[in-house]
Amino acid sequence: MKRIIREPYKIFFETLGNKTRWDIIHLLRKGKLNVTAIAKKLGYEQSLVSHHLGRLQKCGFVSMERNGKERIYTLNKETTKPLLGLMDKHINKFCKKLCR
Questions:
Q1: 4-31 burial by CB neighbour count: b if 16+ within 10 A, else e?
Q2: DSSP conformation class of 4
Q3: pLDDT, tens digit, for every residue of 46-74?
Q4: How are strands ordered across the β-sheet holding 62-67?
Q5: DSSP character for 19?
Q6: Which domains does the chain have, with CATH numbers?
Q7: What would the pLDDT profile of 4-18 be if each residue is shown by its tens digit?
Q8: Which residues contact 75 (CB under 8 A, 6 or more apart)?
């Protein structure tokens, strides 16, 4: 039997499973934002948001572009947006009864 490599999956799901990171991802579904705007909209300290954006960026869920001194964050259009769409489809089909 082939050995299953679990660590990348563990990191993937731990990254998505964190409430703060999930809040950031959900907010970025609406469009690009800088750290200050994300922190203000979510009511989190800017340093906390920056820390979690770093993890999201390392794992490829978000990307960052510089606009002068400002850093603008956006969801990865190639993989994260389709993944969220697939998750929405799965939740709507199989998990809605759990939330009632």
A1: eeeeeeeeeeebbeeebbebbbebbeee
A2: P
A3: 999 999 999 999 999 999 999 999 999 99
A4: 33-34, 70-75, 62-67
A5: H
A6: 7-99 (1.10.10.10)
A7: 778 999 999 999 999
A8: 25, 28, 29, 61, 62, 63, 81, 84
Q: Following DSSP, what letter does each residue of 25-88 receive, concatenated?
A: HHHHTT--EEHHHHHHHHT--HHHHHHHHHHHHHTTSEEEEEETTEEEEEE-TTTHHHHHHHHH
Residue with tokens 């660590």: 7
Question: What's the sign of the alpha-carbon dihedral 83, 23, 20, 18?
Answer: negative
Helix (H) or strand (E) holding 5: none
Task: Show the tokens assigned to 58.
Answer: 């390392």
First and final C-alpha spacing in the chain = 41
